[in-house]
Amino acid sequence: MRSERKAFMADCIFCKIVKGKIPSDKVMEGKHFIAIRDINPQAPVHILLITREHFKNILEFPRSEGMFFEMLSMIEKVVKAEKIEKGFRVVINTGLEAGQSVDHFHIHILGGREMKWPPG
Ligand code: 5GP
Ligand code: ZN
Q: pTM of the predicted model, to two decimals?
């Protein structure tokens, strides 16, 4: 691995959360993902699914059946555990223009309130 990339990952807030160097409110753990509560929730339920490994965004997320399967099954488990089956939103902000503020792939699961469309 190139040294600039290593240095970048050492500064990555989600890499630090995955390694336990920064505390988080963890709700679930998988082989490839962890699920934590967002520090600045935008809905009564706001959970982040974060890859254990550092990928910049959905375009870098590997085309691996195992990871894709776990991603979908953890979304389902979180939704059921939080009892938001009747309405929830799964969001993947990608790039500055879409409001991605942490360059480590993550999925927002939001629920527990009425939501509007189109999103802002
Ligand atoms: P993005 O804006 O990249 O789509 O989402 C990043 C999310 O990470 C934001 O909703 C933000 O509140 C959350 N976040 C940023 N830093 C931390 C942190 O240290 N802990 C937790 N739990 N969430 C964080
Ligand atoms: Zn990272």
A: 0.95
